[in-house]
């Protein structure tokens, strides 16, 4: 089959297997982070697969994402908004049965005010900064809330949370520092609000140990095949496979420069394949300079020359000549070329690799075997 774009295959069985792996490590069933369209893999099929696997709680980034998730998840699914709600969005959030993360005194005051005006006790999450210095109440603001418990009670919190900054580096001292700060936060929260749950661990935090688990873990990346420890052994199954169709095969009859800038020169006799897929499709332009590779069948083939907007060139000399170039594909992501491998090669985060995969790819979902 030939198409003008690549095929992005999402293995929902592998997703389910990763969910089961995380559940086996934890004492309590985790939530799932499906923000950014489930890291580019499709929030609806991913969310529905995880719900069928037993996931009841989901984290999205924005009100818009959460409203969309409400449309495809069952009514009993609990949906949190990591980015909270902006002024004026509170009532829409309440009406949709969504739970915002409140990370400032101003946001807490607005939520409490709207709840009073509507005479409802709509739940929220309180986020406290324990060292990442991104979003969350400062330690001083949290102590103020503890000293004035009516501030907390008016927001009807069901969860208090924080976020780890260095969990993918198990030996980093910040992991223990943040855990100890959060213990203090959790103790004061439980004293004021018996029954409230506490959440600290992201994907990598789960593998730091039980001290980081608390009541609710929030895996995202590990569900999608990211390994929890930087430069560690693969622990999760690869969920994504990306195949790019060959547009043209040519054998060099004389030495030639390859691609923009003429930075790469190859001798006569080399066989090249041009595939559909370039930096407009999420293939980082540095790959050609950083030893980028793909697989033609079982043969590893290198990227040569600069990556263009819509195309990439591979040297396929070492592979068997394609019998039908127009029906030939080169694989650039799978269990052999994991997201972590690509991210290390180009100096990017794995999150960037997945979320940058553009909409021109045809998505194929491999369903969970029943």
Automatic annotation (TrEMBL):
SUPFAM superfamilies: Alanine racemase C-terminal domain-like, PLP-binding barrel. GO terms for biological process: D-alanine biosynthetic process. Its cofactor is pyridoxal 5'-phosphate. Its EC number is 5.1.1.1. It comes from the Bacteria. Keywords: Isomerase, Pyridoxal phosphate. It is an enzyme of class 5 (isomerase). Residues 239-366 form the Alanine racemase C-terminal domain. Substrate binds at residues 134, 309. It catalyses: L-alanine = D-alanine. Pathway: Amino-acid biosynthesis; D-alanine biosynthesis; D-alanine from L-alanine: step 1/1. GO terms for cellular component: cytosol. This is Alanine racemase. It comes from Marinimicrobium koreense.
């Amino acid at each position: 089959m030939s198409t003008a774009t690549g095929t992005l295959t999402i293995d929902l069985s592998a997703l389910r297997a990763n969910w089961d792996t995380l559940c086996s490590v934890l004492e309590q069933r985790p939530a799932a982070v499906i923000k950014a369209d489930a890291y580019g893999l499709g929030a609806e099929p991913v969310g529905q697969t995880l719900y069928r696997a037993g996931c009841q709680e989901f984290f999205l980034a924005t009100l818009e994402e959460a409203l969309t998730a409400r449309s495809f998840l069952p009514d009993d699914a609990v949906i949190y908004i990591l980015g909270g709600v902006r002024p004026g969005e509170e009532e829409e959030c309440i009406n949709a049965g969504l739970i915002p993360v409140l990370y400032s005194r101003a946001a807490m005051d607005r939520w409490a005010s709207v709840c009073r005006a509507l005479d409802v006790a709509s739940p929220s999450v309180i986020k406290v900064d324990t060292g990442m210095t991104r979003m969350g109440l400062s330690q001083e603001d949290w102590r103020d809330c503890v000293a004035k418990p009516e501030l907390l009670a008016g927001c009807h919190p069901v969860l208090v949370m924080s976020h780890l900054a260095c969990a993918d580096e198990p030996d980093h001292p910040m992991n223990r520092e943040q855990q100890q700060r959060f213990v203090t936060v959790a103790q004061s929260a439980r004293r004021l609000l018996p029954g409230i749950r506490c959440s600290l661990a992201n994907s990598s935090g789960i593998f730091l140990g039980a001290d980081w688990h608390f009541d609710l873990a929030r895996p995202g990346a590990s569900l999608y095949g990211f390994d929890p420890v930087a430069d560690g052994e693969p622990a999760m199954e690869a969920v994504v496979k990306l195949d790019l169709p060959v547009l043209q095969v040519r054998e060099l009859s004389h030495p030639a420069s390859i691609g923009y800038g003429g930075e790469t020169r190859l001798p006569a006799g080399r066989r090249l394949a041009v595939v559909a897929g370039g930096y407009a499709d999420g293939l980082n332009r540095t790959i050609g300079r950083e030893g980028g590779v793909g697989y033609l069948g079982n043969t590893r083939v290198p990227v040569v020359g600069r990556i263009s907007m819509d195309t990439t060139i591979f040297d396929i000399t070492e592979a068997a000549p394609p019998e039908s170039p127009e029906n030939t594909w080169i694989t650039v992501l799978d269990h052999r070329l994991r997201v972590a491998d690509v991210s290390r090669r180009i100096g990017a985060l794995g999150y960037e690799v997945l979320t940058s995969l553009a909409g021109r790819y045809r998505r194929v979902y491999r369903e969970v075997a029943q």
